[in-house]
Design brief:
- The complex is a heterodimer.
- Chain A is an alpha+beta fold.
- In chain A, about 25% of the residues lie in helices and about 35% in strands.
- Chain A folds into 2 domains: about 5-230, Rossmann fold (3-Layer(aba) Sandwich), CATH 3.40.50.300; about 235-340, Nucleic acid-binding proteins (OB fold (Dihydrolipoamide Acetyltransferase, E2P), Beta Barrel), CATH 2.40.50.
- Chain A starts with a strand and ends in a 10-residue tail after the last strand.
- In chain A, the strands form 4 sheets. Chain A has a 6-stranded mixed β-sheet, sandwiched between helices. Chain A has a 5-stranded antiparallel β-sheet with strand order 13-12-11-14-20. A 5-stranded antiparallel β-sheet of chain A has the order 15-19-16-17-18, with no helix packed on it.
- The longest helix of chain A has 18 residues, at about 165-185.
- Chain B folds into 2 domains: about 5-60; about 75-280, MetI-like (MetI-like fold).
- Chain B contains 15 helices and no strands.
- The longest helix of chain B has about 30 residues, at about 75-105.
- The two termini of chain B are about 30 Å apart.
- Classes of the chains: A alpha+beta, B mainly alpha.
- The interface of A and B includes residues 50, 77, 81, 83 and 88 of A.
């Protein structure tokens, strides 16, 4: 087990820089999720830690040792791939034992480790099958088993759940989390799914276009997003953004109404409000012309436009709502639940 | 959609049966000819049903002097020569093309694509085109009348290299990466992962190349002057013209029959892998 340091990490393909000066300290035993839209460089970052991509500049250290120049097999890591990458011609047992066999561990030792890992993952009855005879979920377990038997310092997961169906994904998500807590191995997990990221990670690193937008706990990211990108990416349905003019603790909406905010800034800015923080209030300042209702059972999503403007806005209200489409509903929001961002840079404006 | 009507069933079967007859009839005639004596084979009409000289002919062909009145090697030796040549060519081709395809697909080195195209262009230069310089080289190396002379010039193979390249390209990159994390070096990866994954393709190629090697005619004809090195395919033709006598069809046909057996055996033995190797695309 080990901590990981990323110092001023840069990756370029020719003249194109795809990762820009990534910094990050990962504590021993932490579960870090790297999350971002496709093409943001999250897999590249993971593969650099694994040693499958070279480092252009900067340093990766695992357990205090610089690993830039080490082969993947010398970094004491294990990786779980999106398509599992099981060797199709080997049985589950051989798949799990292959790395240990290469490291020339004694046969008895290998057998013991494979049995133990199979026990933990409940795949003992499949040990003598070939990967093609297994279902997606079972293959996923074998891929994790192959990682566990190596007893590595670091687990790396590259979107391991995206080939599974929705139900299995939720189940495996919990299992990965439990397993990681039980083994206490430092883990880096890459995903584009923000729910997966929120539920799995001790801390999340949000990547966008090769930049780290924010690195913090899921709740920090939700409560105090550092940028409009993070605010829009974390949380579902996504946060509403409205252009506002600030003046002494109030924000004037495009509709002309005033909302109190916890900020002393003045001038133009972008106001962010999460749909679930809008509360129905007949005298509220935020008037929504309802376009569409989405009944989710536990709550209802109201999609509409800010009264008198074309700004789309979504509110989430508890229970069932049967308001007619075309009606206007009014909402208010507590000042400390509002978020303000610089319209040009997208950065958070702090009070 | 497959229709199931009596008339179409009849027609399809008729066509298929005619096709089988067209292919099987010459083989049958060959077999029949190998069961009669020399005299009967030079009379008209040709027999259509087997006679009783099969074992005598077989004995004379395989272990005797073959054609009477000539000094050629016994056919068992020719079979052995052919077998050695076909096996050397097919295994040599497979080993060389596996290695060159491995180099081209998995290693980055200067002029990689240049080498690939150089190999690929040799497709345009079969033995027949380069036969004089090749003969010169083989003769200067003193490889005339040897198994090496028979096989080595035919071993370099662009087709097989190209095929293995395509096979290797279908192997997902993650397998390579996974093997790297497991600590497998290039050779381990080659032997532990790539070879087992290409097993069926190797088998398919072996069948094709074995028959290719077995059927070689022109090249062995050129470089073997010693009768103890003749191969069976070239000797069939020579028997026809031997010693200015009327052809001994019974012996020639027995030889032809013997020449057919090893390829048939190889195809039957490797049929399952052969079909898998040519049709399977999933790795």
């Amino acid at each position: 087990m080990a901590d990981i340091q990323l110092k001023d990490l840069v990756k370029s393909y020719g003249p194109t820089e795809v990762l820009h000066h990534i910094e990050g300290d990962i504590q021993d035993g932490e579960f870090i999720v790297i999350v971002g839209p496709s093409g943001c460089g999250k897999s590249t970052l993971l593969r650099m830690v694994a040693g499958l991509e070279s480092v252009t500049s900067g340093e990766i250290a695992i357990g205090g040792t610089r690993v830039n120049e080490l082969e993947p097999s010398q970094r004491d890591i294990a990786m779980v791939f999106q398509n599992y990458a099981l060797y199709p011609h080997m049985t589950v047992r051989q798949n799990m034992a292959y790395g240990l066999k290469i490291r020339k561990l004694p046969k008895a030792d290998i057998d013991r480790r494979v049995e133990e890992a199979a026990e933990i993952l409940e795949i003992k009855q499949y040990l003598d099958r070939k990967p093609r005879q297994l279902s997606g979920g079972q293959r996923q377990r074998v891929a994790m088993g192959r990682a566990i038997v190596r007893d590595p310092q670091v687990f790396l997961f590259d979107e391991p759940l995206s080939n599974l169906d929705a139900k299995l994904r939720v189940q495996m998500r919990l299992e990965i989390r439990k397993l990681q807590q039980r083994l206490g191995v430092t883990s880096i997990y890459v995903t584009h799914d923000q729910v997966e990221a929120m539920t799995l990670g001790d801390r999340l690193m949000v990547l966008n276009g090769g930049y780290v937008e924010q690195f913090g706990t899921p709740i920090e990211l939700y409560d105090r997003p550092a940028s409009m990108f993070v605010a829009g990416f974390i949380g579902s349905p996504a946060m509403n953004f409205l252009p506002v003019t600030l003046d002494a603790g109030t924000a004037s909406l495009p509709s002309g109404h005033q909302v109190s905010v916890a900020s002393g800034h003045s001038g133009t800015a972008t106001l962010g409000m999460r749909p679930e923080h809008l509360t129905a209030d007949p005298d509220g300042p935020i008037a929504i012309n309802v376009d569409m209702l989405e009944q989710l059972g536990a709550n209802t999503l109201i999609h509409g436009r800010l009264d008198g403007t074309e700004h789309a806005i979504t509110a989430s209200v508890p229970g069932h709502a049967h308001d007619g489409i075309g009606n206007t509903r009014r909402f208010s929001i507590a000042p400390d639940l509002t978020h303000l961002f610089d319209t040009d840079t997208g950065k958070r404006l702090d009070s | 959609m497959v229709e199931n009507r009596p008339l179409t069933t009849f027609v399809t079967h008729l066509v298929l049966i005619l096709g089988v007859l067209a292919i099987a009839f010459p083989v049958w005639i060959t077999f029949v000819a190998s069961t009669h004596n020399e005299l009967r084979m030079n009379q008209s009409p040709l027999p259509l049903w087997p006679g009783e000289y099969f074992l005598t002919n077989m004995q004379q062909t395989l272990f005797g002097s073959g054609l009477s009145g000539t000094e050629q090697a016994p056919v068992w030796l020719m079979l052995l020569n052919s077998l050695a040549m076909a096996l050397l060519i097919s295994s040599g081709k497979i080993v060389i093309s596996l290695l060159s395809a491995f180099a081209i697909v998995y290693f980055k080195f200067p002029f990689r694509m240049g080498f690939f195209w150089m190999i690929f262009i040799t497709l345009m230069l079969p033995v027949e085109v380069r036969i004089l310089p090749t003969f010169e080289v083989v003769a200067n190396l003193g490889m005339l009348n040897s198994y090496w002379g028979l096989s080595i010039p035919l071993i370099a193979s662009a087709t097989a290299t190209f095929m293995f390249r395509q096979v290797f390209l279908t192997v997902p990159d993650e397998l390579l990466e996974s093997a790297r994390i497991d600590g497998a070096g290039p050779l381990r990866f080659f032997f532990d992962i790539l070879l087992p994954l290409s097993r069926t393709n190797i088998a398919a190629l072996f069948v094709i190349l074995f028959i290719f090697g077995w059927n070689q005619y022109l090249w062995p004809l050129l470089i073997t002057t010693d009768t103890s090195m003749t191969t069976i395919v070239m000797s069939i033709k020579q028997m026809l013209e031997a010693a200015e006598q009327s052809p001994q069809w019974n012996i020639i046909m027995t030889t032809a029959l013997l020449a057919m057996i090893p390829p048939v055996f190889v195809v039957i033995a490797m049929q399952k892998l052969f079909v898998q190797g040519l049709t399977e695309t999933d790795k």
